[in-house]
Structures are given as structure tokens and as C-alpha cells.
Design brief:
about 575 residues, alpha+beta, YbaK protein, Rossmann fold, nine-stranded mixed sheet, five-stranded mixed sheet, 15 helices, globular, binds adenosine-5'-triphosphate, binds magnesium ion
Length: about 575
């Protein structure tokens, strides 16, 4: 491609509304342009990079026996009503009606559509296992679209679905997919970790998120550097502490006046106690009625863990009205003493003595609170969010944390959708069984953005070879100089004929501008054709990753480049 013919509208300035580096660089490199919030056009350079990711994904999906399909983006409400998600999905689902007033949505994901297809087409055990995938535009009306195509409203996803006869088959499909994902992200040149994620009511350890390590990531990865355990923050389990020896005496329960002191900081400051001597009492509404969750003042409750412990469908922090009804006091003074709802406490509170809690009365706290003397805990369990240095659930060593970008997610669904949509098959004995499913997503655009987060420097993008929009950029210093121009075009034609993807900067621009753009676009190899080196029959080759420069004979450049890429 000749730069003069290409639509690569580079920008000199950092766009003001782009917060993270990948967003800034994709705008500056002329890869994307915003049409509306969270909705982007992909320009030719981005298209080429996305295409590279899609090719890698296709190769790896096909390698594990996946078959590509294209499912409709427009989906009728009926199948979503069957799965129960028409109500549950909430505002992220973009709904609309057609001219006959029928309800539709734009697909945010395709479990319903694929399950509908398979329930109609697959009848017998002979047709299973089956893995289908597609690479397609999804729409999610995200509450906070941001970071460019990292969290967009319209974005390209690879979604795959596996269909098996039984649990063992589904687990095998899951394992294959895990390996395929590992290969995909390795081939994309990413530094990533697969971490355990919550499986909710499905249970088991069959949900992994593939996280690209990056400080700008919205997610937190918790991992143990000794045993390799890794999970997202929502899921990360903490080893229960050893029961402390109770050599302190139980002091007399006291009620103290704490006017206007509601937060942990206010109460601990006012009473002169450290936060770990205080119990935070949180009231939740659930489909099983209100419950209380207790954690130490220096800890945070983990709603996902509490929800799983209760095995409930719905759990959310109670509103002010419910808090008042349950505790008899305004928010900020809840405590376990005298509370008539089920109380669950975090493991770290086991054996803690003489604690401070809310008094269930305005402007009042209790001191020297002890269980079981003053209140009853239904169950101690791991219900708090992990912190750096907490003990690993597997080996007890200290947990570490890093930020990450979720680029892929694999999930064993079990029979969740096959049950609600009635997708069954007949086994060898003619007995009807539910098909056991798995679903597997990769954000294609997010993978590109994550790659740029990991691979850039102060001058621009440093594309991994496998994702680069072009392999080589040829830069003649002065395009109007016939000698330079001729050599540049000769190399361009020669490399092109050998299948190397080449961009020739034939613009009549100052060299400074061309060099700046070359660094910005991040093409792995730059061949500079200049007067001085050409006088010695050489051109300059610069490697974008290492910054190293070498002079190569014009005659040998084809072989040189070929050798370089065969080692990549
Ligand atoms: P997140 O927690 O980031 O919202 P999710 O759990 O909603 O992600 P999935 O439903 O598992 O995501 O979707 C599969 C993949 O699609 C994700 O791993 C991610 O790479 C990508 N993805 C999800 N939402 C977006 C988005 N708004 N923009 C771009 N990519 C997305
Ligand atoms: Mg989401």
C-alpha cells in the first residue's frame, strides 16, 4: 500500500477525551474514529489489525473442531423470554419494536439464538459433541462506555458455544477451549493470566477469565506467586485464619453515644479504636428476605461470595427504608446485637473479642460486643474481598494483586439454557437428556486495545509482529529524488511479490513528519532510503521493538527481511 493512497489520518496532538494510552494511540494512529458514545468506525489500519486477530482466532477455533456460523444480530424477544433474560438483562439490552409492534433486541450475546438453533437441528447423541462459533458485532448499552473500543457499546466479539452429551464431555470441551484461548493470546503476543472467575449457581471451577496484565485494566487479578493460584477479585478465596486463642477477658457490653458518627473513620476516630476492632454490619435484601453480613472495619464485604453462600438468586444492599425497618435506626448505626435477621460473619471475625459495632439506634454504638454472648452468627465463612498479603486459599502464602484487562471469558454453562429452552437429545437408549453447554467469548477489539496497552513506548505503538497492520514500512527521505524513489519502489515491489505486507511512505512530507508517523504506527520494521547510505549501496533497517539500526546492502534486503520474519 502506498501511504499517499491510504486513509491513515494520523494526529499530532493527544486527543483530550482519551484517558488511556491505547485509546490515545488508536486515535492518533488514525485507526478509529468515534461516531457516538461507545460507537466507533474502524479505519483501514485498525481493520487490518482486527483481521489478524480474527485469523488467529479462526485458526485456533478450527483446530479444536469449532465450526464457524453467523447468527442474526437482531433477535426476537420470545427466545429471551423463554430463557428468562428479557427481564433479567436490564438496560444493557438494546430493545426495539418493528412495524408490527413485535419486540426485538440487538444481540449482546447469543446463548438464546444458538440454543434455539441446536434444539431444532440436533436430535441424537450421534450429533454431539458440537462446537459452533462466530465472529460478529455485539451491542451492549454499557452504563459507562469508555477507553475507546476497550469498553464500547458496539464491539466485535468471537463467541463460541459447545454442546455435549454429559458433564464429562462438557468438561473436555472446556479444557480444549482453555488451551485454544491460551494459544490465541500467546500468538497475539500478550502477557496474560487465566484466572478463576465466579460461576454463580453453576458451581465448580469452570469459569476462567483471560486477563491481559496492564495498569490501566479495570479488573483486579489476585494471584499467588508460590502455587500459581489466580482468580479475579470477585472470586479470590482467602484461607481462613487460625482460631485466635481467647486469652482476653470478655468485657461488659456498653452502649456509647456517637453523635453523627457513621463511617468507619468517624467512629474509630471518635472512640479511639483501630478499624480492625470494629465490625461493619451491612444489611442486604435477598429473595430469601433481609440478611446481615458482618466484616471487620478494615475489610470490605464481597457480595458475590455472600450471594453464593446463601445460594440465592438476588442479593443487593438494602435501601434506607429496609435498613430502618430491620435495625430500627437510620443507616450508619446497624449492628448485630438484637438484630432479628440471619447474620453471616466473615471468617476473620471468628474469635474476635470486645468489638465495637453499631447500636441499632441513632447516634449510638456498642462497645465490648462478643459472640455468642451478645448475638448469634448463623455461619462464619469467607465473605470479604481479598487484600494484598492475605493468605492464599491453597498454600497459605501471601496473595498478590495486579490490574488486568479481561480479553476472554470461558464458562461451563451446564444445562442452564438447554433446560429453559428445552434443548435435548436422545441417548443410545432412546432416553431424552438435556444437552450440556459451555460458552466462550473473546473481545476482538478489546484484544487489540489491550495489545497496545502492553506494547507501546513514548513515540507510539510497538505492534507485536503477529498483529502488525504491515510488516515493513519503507521510508524514502525525499520522494522527489528519483534515485531514492526508484530504490524505494524496487524494494517495495520485491517484498510485495514475496508476500511481505509493506507500506511505502511516498508522501511528499518533511522527513521529521514521516519518522514520527512511522514510530506512531508501530510497524515492526522500517527501511529508510536516504542519500547518505545509498551512496554506499545500503539502506537502513530499524527494528521498532528494540530500536536497533543496521545497514543492509540494497541487493540483499529481500533475503534479509525474509530471514528476519522466518525467525519471528
Ligand atoms: P466486562 O466485565 O468487561 O463487562 P463481560 O463479563 O460483560 O465483560 P462477556 O460477556 O464475558 O464480558 O463477553 C466476552 C468478552 O467480550 C469479554 O471477555 C470482553 O473481551 C469482550 N467485551 C465485553 N464487553 C465489551 C465491551 N463493552 N466492549 C468491548 N469488548 C467487550
Ligand atoms: Mg459486561
Amino acid at each position: 500500500m502506498l501511504f499517499s493512497n491510504a486513509l491513515i489520518p494520523t494526529l499530532k496532538e493527544i486527543p483530550a477525551d482519551a484517558e488511556i494510552v491505547s485509546h490515545q494511540l488508536m486515535l492518533r494512529a488514525g485507526m478509529i474514529r468515534k461516531l457516538a458514545t461507545g460507537i466507533y468506525s474502524y479505519l483501514p489500519l485498525a481493520q487490518r489489525v482486527l483481521q489478524k486477530v480474527k485469523t488467529i482466532i479462526r485458526e485456533e477455533m478450527n483446530r479444536i473442531g469449532g465450526q464457524e456460523v453467523t447468527l442474526p444480530a437482531v433477535q426476537p424477544s420470545e427466545i429471551w423470554e423463554e430463557s428468562g433474560r428479557w427481564e433479567l438483562y436490564g438496560k444493557e439490552l438494546l430493545r426495539f419494536t418493528d412495524r408490527h409492534n413485535r419486540n426485538f433486541c440487538l444481540g449482546p450475546t447469543h446463548e438464546e439464538v444458538i440454543t434455539d438453533l441446536v434444539r431444532r437441528e440436533v436430535k441424537s447423541y450421534r450429533e454431539l459433541p458440537l462446537t459452533l462459533y462466530q465472529i460478529q458485532t455485539k451491542f451492549r448499552d454499557e452504563i459507562r462506555p469508555r477507553f475507546g473500543i476497550m469498553r464500547a457499546r458496539e464491539f466485535v466479539m468471537k463467541d463460541a458455544y459447545s454442546f455435549d452429551r454429559d458433564e464429562a464431555g462438557a468438561e473436555e470441551s472446556y479444557r480444549k477451549m482453555y488451551q485454544a484461548y491460551t494459544r490465541i493470546f500467546e500468538r497475539c503476543g500478550l502477557e496474560f493470566r487465566a484466572v478463576e472467575a465466579d460461576t454463580g449457581s453453576i458451581g465448580g471451577s469452570f469459569s476462567h477469565e483471560f486477563m491481559v496484565l496492564a495498569d490501566s485494566g479495570e479488573d483486579v487479578i489476585v494471584y499467588c506467586s508460590s502455587c500459581g493460584y489466580g482468580a479475579n477479585l470477585e472470586k479470590a478465596e482467602i484461607k481462613p485464619p487460625d482460631a485466635p486463642s481467647r486469652n482476653e477477658t470478655l468485657k461488659k457490653l456498653e452502649r456509647v453515644s456517637t453523635p453523627g458518627k457513621k463511617t468507619i473513620e468517624e467512629v474509630t476516630g471518635f472512640l479511639g479504636v483501630p478499624p480492625h476492632d470494629l465490625i461493619k454490619t451491612l444489611i442486604f435484601e435477598t429473595d430469601q428476605g433481609p440478611v446481615a453480613g458482618l466484616v471487620r472495619g478494615d475489610h470490605e464485604i464481597n457480595e458475590v461470595k455472600l450471594k453464593n453462600l446463601l445460594n440465592c438468586e438476588y442479593l443487593a444492599l438494602a435501601d434506607d427504608g429496609t435498613v430502618e425497618k430491620v435495625t430500627g435506626s437510620p443507616r450508619g448505626f446497624a449492628g448485630p446485637v438484637g438484630l432479628r435477621i440471619p447474620i453471616y460473619a466473615d471468617n476473620s471475625l471468628r474469635g474476635c473479642l470486645n468489638m465495637v459495632t453499631g447500636g441499632n439506634e441513632q447516634d449510638t454504638h456498642c462497645k465490648n460486643v462478643n459472640t455468642p454472648r451478645d448475638y448469634t452468627v448463623i455461619r462464619f465463612a469467607d465473605i470479604r474481598t481479598a487484600l494484598e498479603d492475605d493468605p492464599c486459599v491453597r498454600c497459605g502464602n501471601q496473595l498478590r494483586m495486579r490490574r488486568g484487562i479481561e480479553v476472554g471469558h470461558i464458562f461451563k454453562l451446564g444445562i442452564k439454557y438447554s433446560k429453559s429452552l428445552h434443548a435435548t437429545y436422545l441417548d443410545r437408549d432412546g432416553k431424552e437428556n438435556f444437552i450440556v453447554m459451555g460458552c466462550y467469548g473473546i473481545g476482538v477489539g478489546r484484544t487489540v486495545a489491550a495489545a497496545i496497552e502492553q506494547h507501546h513506548d513514548k513515540d507510539g505503538i510497538v505492534f507485536p509482529h503477529t498483529l502488525a497492520p504491515y510488516h515493513v514500512l519503507i521510508l524514502p527521505i525525499e520522494i522527489n529524488d528519483d534515485d531514492l524513489r526508484n530504490v524505494a519502489f524496487r524494494i517495495y515491489n520485491q517484498l510485495g511479490a514475496e508476500g511481505v505486507e509493506v507500506l511505502l511512505d511516498d508522501r511528499d512530507e518533511r522527513p521529521g513528519i514521516k519518522f514520527k508517523d512511522a514510530d506512531l504506527l508501530g510497524i515492526p520494521l522500517r527501511i529508510t532510503v536516504g542519500r547518505r547510505t545509498l551512496a554506499q549501496g545500503k539502506v537502513e533497517v530499524k527494528y521498532r521493538t528494540s530500536g536497533t539500526v543496521e545497514l543492509v546492502d540494497c541487493e540483499k534486503i529481500g533475503t534479509h527481511i525474509k530471514n528476519h520474519f522466518s525467525n519471528c
